[in-house]
Structure formats: C-alpha cells, structure tokens
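ARCHIVE CARD
Drawer: 12
Card no.: 0347
Subject: one protein chain, sequence and derived structure
Cross-reference: see card 0346
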Amino acid sequence: MFTYKYPRPAVTVDAILISKKNSVLLIQRGGEPFKDKWALPGGFIELDESLEDACHRELEEETGIRVGEITQFKAYGSVDRDPRGRTISVIFYSFQEEESVPAAGDDAADAQWFALDHLPELAFDHQIILDEFKAEVLTTD
C-alpha cells in the first residue's frame, strides 16, 4: 500500500431526510462528542465504499430506515467543525412520502422526526447545514 506523507482528513457522510410534513429525521447522539445532542444521521465512510453507499449504510445503521435514491447536496469542511479532528462531510438528501418509524441503532440513542421550524439544539454544524439546505433546496411559494 502506498504511504502518503501528508496528513489526511477523515471523511463522513450525513443524510437529510425530509418528509411531506416538512419534517427532518434526526438522531440523538449516544456518545461523545455532543452526547445527547441531536444530529443528522451519518458517520465515517469505509475505505472500500462509495459516498452514496456509506450514506445508505449509516442511515440504516442509525435509524433502521432504507431509502432509494439520494442526491448530493454539499460538502462541509470547516477546520474546527469536529472536535475529534479534521473532518470533511458530504451531505446527501432524499424526500420521503411517509415518515417511516425510525429505530435507533449503532451509536444513536434515539431517532425522531422533527418539524423543520421546531428543531432541537443540533450537534456539530448541522444547524448551518439545515439552514443552507432550506434556503437552497426547499422553496416557498
């Protein structure tokens, strides 16, 4: 295996699931950092999987929910966005007809749907991500 002399950041994926009721699916973090805070479902990619596959896997592991097509939104990479170290997150989204009942799993203590206009305090930079998503993807007539 090739050895690279420069430090490399970690790469994560996060999922934004939006229901017809204008709700978003969040998980309550079961561990540090931000234990007990709410966040988008997601996590670290495996070295042998695509970003999309990682997003599908993390979503299912943390919420028990499987979705079909996902669309890439943006990547976030502020230097201090994760206290564990340099992390770049690629965000995907999907619109859902129904609010499937989530079952918290893996490192999620809970999983629930929240109205986009009544969100709990969010971990990491997930409030910024959702604010930008609402402004750039969700439109109001």
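Annotation on reverse: Residues 50 and 138 are 26 Å apart (CA to CA). Residues 51-63 form the longest helix (13 residues).
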